[in-house]
Amino acid sequence: MDTSVDVFAGEFEIHLTVDGSSPAVGSGALAAHAAGRGWKYACIVLDRGRTPLQPMATFTVGHCTVGAALAAARSAADELSAAGCPVVRVKVEAAPWARGVPATDAEGAALGPGYYFEHHVKLLLPPDADPAGPARCAVRHAAHLSRNARRVRDDGQREQFVTQRCREVGSATAGRRLEALLAELAARGYETLSVEREFVVHDSAQTLDAGWIDEGEGARP
């Protein structure tokens, strides 16, 4: 993925994934470091895949170029690693309306598969819900499930994320695929709490998600 040319500009969200086997995860040191820096911290658990446990620190950077955002991400990754929290993945995500995000399929294809739209749908499930139901729905739309192990609701209900990825397309096509996913989830009675759309402009370790989302399974509306 080539981010040497600052074709993207806007606000960016940085995700730093830490090695799940690090003692800093279990001891709470990672959570404490993130809190001290004012970063969000989530312990993401994928529903399937080679690396299901993915502790993650997240922060945003204001309007800048992707080069500046990547520099901030790498600096923060070095900081975490020096604190005993080894970073195994750096992701930089732009809003869908940021400069440089492809509007057409031709523009998306020109960027290549290293860049992709990512959609996060947060579902609210009853305590006894079988996750196999939304999982079956997700795989038909190049998506799959995850959850934040740190998030426990007082009412006993469960929050589950459905993450969808769309590569080598423009924002219009990605939007249609998201709408198709949302429509099927609604038709099957699943309650949606929130929806996020992002465009990934840098992902240093996509193989970390091997075995999770099979993008060949999904529908292509």
How would you describe what is shown here?
The chain has helices at 23-27, 29-37, 66-82, 105-111, 132-139, 171-187; strands spanning 9-18, 40-46, 53-65, 87-94, 116-125, 143-148, 158-167, 191-203. The protein has 2 domains: 9-94, Alpha-Beta Plaits (2-Layer Sandwich); 115-196, Alpha-Beta Plaits (2-Layer Sandwich), CATH 3.30.70.380. It is built from 6 helices and 8 strands, in the order βααββαβαβαββαβ. 33% of the residues are buried. The protein is α+β, with helices and mostly antiparallel strands and 221 residues long. The two termini are 26 Å apart. Helices cover 29% and strands 35% of the residues.
What is the level-2 CATH architecture name of the largest domain?
Answer: 2-Layer Sandwich
* CATH secondary-structure class of the largest domain: Alpha Beta
Report strand order across the widest sheet: 1-3-2-6-7-5-8-4
Fraction in beta strands: 25-35%
CATH topology of the largest domain: Alpha-Beta Plaits
Q: How many H/I helices?
A: 6
Q: What are the segments in which pLDDT stays under 50 over at least 5 consecutive residues?
A: none
How many domains, in number, for the residues? Answer: 2
Shape: globular
Strand/helix succession: EHHEEHEHEHEEHE
Q: What is the gyration radius calculated from CA atoms?
A: 17 Å
| Largest sheet entry | 8 strands, antiparallel, barrel
